[in-house]
Amino acid sequence: MTDARRSQSDRLSEAEAIERAKQGDASAFEALYNLHKRRVYSLCLRMTANTAAAEDLTQEAFLQLFRKIGTFRGESAFSTWLHRMAVNVVLMQLRKKGLNVVPLEETMEGEEESPKKEPGGDDVRLAGSVDRLQLQHAIAELPPGYRMIFLLHDVQGYEHNEIADMIGCSIGNSKSQLHKARMKLRELLKTSRAEKATKP
Amino acid sequence: MTCKELERVLPELEGVRSFELEQHLKTCSACSELVSDLNAISGQAKLLETTAEEPSPRVWASIESALRQEGLIHEAQPQLVLVPPDASCWRFTWLMPALATLLVVCGLVLHQRGRMEPQSAPQTLAKGSLPADQATAMVPEEEELLELVAARAPALRATYESDLRAVDAYIRDAELSARTNPNDEIAQQHLMNAYEQKAMVYELAMNRSQP
Lengths: 200, 211
Known about the structure:
Chain A contains ten helices and no strands. By secondary structure, chain A is an all-alpha fold. Chain B has two domains: 3-49; 57-209, Four Helix Bundle (Hemerythrin (Met), subunit A) (Up-down Bundle).
């Protein structure tokens, strides 16, 4: 990309870029891509744990978005719209690979996890401190449904109403899934810490 | 509040703490530890986003290429005006496909040379990073072509100059990308597209310069 084009794409506001992209302006498409590529790629990478797959999914999500950009009317935030596509692309890919992406409504009525039930809960404590690398490994071990909600809410900062819109579930369901994801992470982190403690 | 009640309301809390909850946490170490751990997980998760990586340039190149192929990106094309055929304008018509072919062949030769000499990439890259004024300077052949266009249609000189500069910039970008990634087929395809676009601009300008 030339400096002139890069500079032009940086100067565009999102709203301007959307309008110009609707007219087929290449620099507007590029500006929108540059604005959102990190968050979309980050989500795809953490969901797949594979850079090549994450890049393919990022590409597919943006292509779907750009193909439909003419229909964007601004009822929801552009980033929510884009993330909805990214989420769908990722979940579709996981299903194609045969990974068990449990429908969110079905996982809602599972057994409730008690604060007192974690393995090693009495012996190993997080004591309110979490190591970043261990957390990244634990996130990768979460079931895809939990992982997606956790990434969208706790990592990327989306609100439950936005997540409900992206995933197509209720706000209550999003909250419940997030809580279960955090509980599962706590359990994984405790197990990891316990294993580390027992190593010579 | 009991431990069971806390467990039930915890997903709804989102940082809001009621008086009853606070009182319970003061007296129950297990629940206090749980809430502290969940807050720590959530807090550490927020820091992960700041270290997010970004996709390689290949991703945008593929998206752009697909958008162009699907016609979603509209190129600024020189305005075409139909002119009644004139017998004299066919004198140099045979030159146009020859010129277009020559440009594509030149592109192919340069491209193959670049692939066969990957070790010379740093040197070539240095050439590619010319100062802005040199990088945008037009070669004498392009100046001559523009003069020919201006002689027939003065108003179109600026349009063709702009198109030539744009396509030259595209070629520079594509060459840089192809040399940096000699095994990337998409980068090579971009380079070919760039040469073809230049051939097309030359052809249109030649058409325009005919009497």
